Amino acid sequence: MGTIVKHLYAHPLSTTRKVSAWRRFINWCDGQEKYRLGWLGAALTLHGCILTILTMFAVILSGNHFIFWPFIIGAMGVTLVVNLAAMPTRITIPVFFFSVLVDIMIIISCIVIGFDAAGTTI
Known about the structure:
Layout: H1 21-31, H2 36-61, H3 68-84, H4 89-113
């Protein structure tokens, strides 16, 4: 015996899938694989020669708080290790950006603490 009322439901077919911002970023990082050597040079030069030195300078001028030093060393170390381990750019670029973010947060913290040149004397 069949039912008297038949309910028809047509589910709208959507062929477009929304891609998250993180997935688009990772896809972009995968596309940067051909520029791997450039990213390696940029990461080591910008982070090792410029940003880490500026971060250390900010920490020393703000009173040389010990809590900042492991984060400075760790941020530089993780960038160096990931690049020297020849990881793909889908790993090295996000790690580089994260370590730059850590250094910027340390510099902002030092600015909030305040700079004092008297903290540099022994």
